Amino acid sequence: MQNSTARIAILGSGNIGVSLAKGLVKAGFYAPADIILTRRNSAALAPLAEAGYGTSADNLAAVREADIVVLAVLPQQLNKVLDGIREGLDADRQLLISVISGVSCQDIRTQTSADVRVVRAMPNTAIGIGQSMTCIASDQDREEDLTLVEKLFDTVGTTVRINEELMTSATALCACGVAFFLRAIRAASQGGTEIGFHAPDALRMAAQTAKGAADLLLQLASHPEQEIDKVTSPKGCTIAGLNEMEHHGFSSALIKGIKLSADKAGRLYKDE
């Protein structure tokens, strides 16, 4: 086990927290017994307890046992959680990892009244299948901490290090973005049904087509327009469809939606 001497507490063990825990175990970073998962209703964690994970409804007790603390609660719950664990924090020993939208590293230090080390990570729900796009940032230039957090989240997808001021934007593009792309796939499948395919077949065809399109960019390091040019021919059916979508604001609507989500994400904590 790479981190057999360290324990990790994940406070707020919903989809993101549990998926991270499972990814760390699968990758051999941790044994289940080295991970403490907390949730207000700890009974919901019973299957994980049976699998050997530590589970609890007591955040303070979990933090006192941990070297790494992952904050995975809702923005509206954060201040109460931080107030509850403040006396258990050890700034010299512990690293805090926040996956909470709209909360800066300094916000956490201010609320805890402690000079704690904080790294922010913004995964998305594809973490559940090991395909998250996770953005990582901190306001402290601690290479060791950033590298560790990258290694942790690389077990459940891909990571990219960004400046902290862009973390709210990362929420809109990568976390909210999952829903945006799913809605596009859903719309494509509905179009498929309208032109003759049964709904389950249309959905499968649309989803696989979207996956292939994404892999063209990721595996070939290509640009979308370069790949689009390969599909469009003069007076062809592809360019006709693309132009019709653009006439109805397809690209503009997506861009505006991402911008609005970024604005909203930046106010989630402050508007609690």
UniProtKB/TrEMBL annotation:
Binding residues for NADPH: N59
One Gene Ontology term from the biological process aspect of the record: L-proline biosynthetic process
Keywords assigned by UniProt, alphabetized: Amino-acid biosynthesis, Cytoplasm, NADP, Oxidoreductase, Proline biosynthesis
Record-linked Pfam families: F420_oxidored (PF03807), P5CR_dimer (PF14748)
UniProt keyword annotation of Amino-acid biosynthesis present: yes
Cited InterPro entries: 6-PGluconate_DH-like_C_sf, NAD(P)-bd_dom_sf, P5C_Rdtase_cat_N, P5CR_dimer, Pyrroline-COOH_reductase
UniProt subcellular location: Cytoplasm
Pathway: Amino-acid biosynthesis; L-proline biosynthesis; L-proline from L-glutamate 5-semialdehyde: step 1/1
Annotated TM spans: none
Keyword set includes Cytoplasm: yes
Residues engaged in binding NADP(+): A72, V73, L74, P75
Group of enzyme by EC: oxidoreductase
Record field: catalytic activity: L-proline + NADP(+) = (S)-1-pyrroline-5-carboxylate + NADPH + 2 H(+); L-proline + NAD(+) = (S)-1-pyrroline-5-carboxylate + NADH + 2 H(+)
One GO CC term, this protein: cytoplasm
GO molecular function, one term: pyrroline-5-carboxylate reductase activity
PANTHER family noted in UniProt: PYRROLINE-5-CARBOXYLATE REDUCTASE, PYRROLINE-5-CARBOXYLATE REDUCTASE 3
Protein name: Pyrroline-5-carboxylate reductase
Species name: Hymenobacter persicinus
